[in-house]
């Protein structure tokens, strides 16, 4: 499996020309997919049901599910960056699925640790910040009162997605892949990554992939129930939706799949849940902001709301309008982010005024 072969799990905007008109999304659905080597996702309303409605290889824009009803919409985002969908009309509602309170003591303990380790000053900053703009591919500029801060969006987003996974444990909606992604193929691709540290003595990549597929198939029911990671017939069918409208970069999916077998402690409940949430956070994190390509949006807007939804939104727009508002509501930043250069104060208007007074 080559890098470019991830494209077959994508629904591209250009597919609409050959598949007919695209219907608007059903209430509570958002989606993602396109561009070069890209990631295409559809969102389902029910974490327990959408994956089961998919047929083997069913992946198309405007295709009707087995259960009938309106076709589902896909949008395009590059695989190397995050993306999102502008919420329009009825799609503003995230899901009709009722919320079920999590009663697992291990999840409550992990959440208590998050709260105990939170930094109060940074928490106020993130709750009351104003987004100024992107500094480069990794940093954004935030204002809080009279101070400006440079924030590493990768580190912040990863910790935020970890907390989101715990807060929404067992209540996550679905991001459905445009076609099932075979676990064996994903593992073979991941083993080519130097970060996998694969050596010939470890065994043939295909054999390792088959072992991972057996393990994840055995854990499939738990993964779907707790984190809406749907696995069917040895393939990943759907991922969890950690933030409504947010589509993660899919270039990390192969390594994520391999690490589900090597980095999750399956034999103990709390370490298992913690390591699983950490892995999902590493998959969803924003590694790079990408091009500030909002100039492409007006052309799509002129073509109508369906075209705008299908093109998706730039990473910069997604971070400003989807990710940061969610961070503002619930994020509890760990204390180490105040000292590890994740958040750095770069200016204070009060000090600037003193400088101007001297001039």
Structural commentary:
The protein is an alpha+beta fold. α5 (153-167) crosses α10, α6 (183-190) packs across α9 (253-262) and α9 runs antiparallel to α10. Mean pLDDT is 75; it is low at 10-76, 87-94 and 292-311. A hairpin with a 4-residue loop joins β4 and β5 (139-144). The strands form 3 sheets. A 5-stranded antiparallel sheet has the order 1-2-7-9-8. Helix content is 39%, strand content 15%. The radius of gyration is 21 Å and the shape is globular. The longest helix has 16 residues, at 269-284. It is built from 14 helices and 11 strands. The protein starts with 15 loop residues before the first helix and ends with a helix.
Topology (SSEs and partners):
Layout: H1 16-19, E1 31-32, E2 41-44, H2 50-53, E3 83-84, H3 105-116, H4 120-128, E4 130-134, E5 139-144, E6 147-152, H5 153-167, E7 173-182, H6 183-190, H7 205-218, H8 220-227, E8 230-232, E9 235-241, E10 246-247, H9 253-262, H10 269-284, H11 297-302, H12 305-311, H13 315-330, E11 343-348, H14 349-358
Antiparallel strand pairs: 1-2, 2-7, 3-10, 4-5, 5-6, 6-11, 7-9, 8-9
Helix pairs in contact: 3-10, 5-10, 6-7, 6-9, 7-9, 9-10
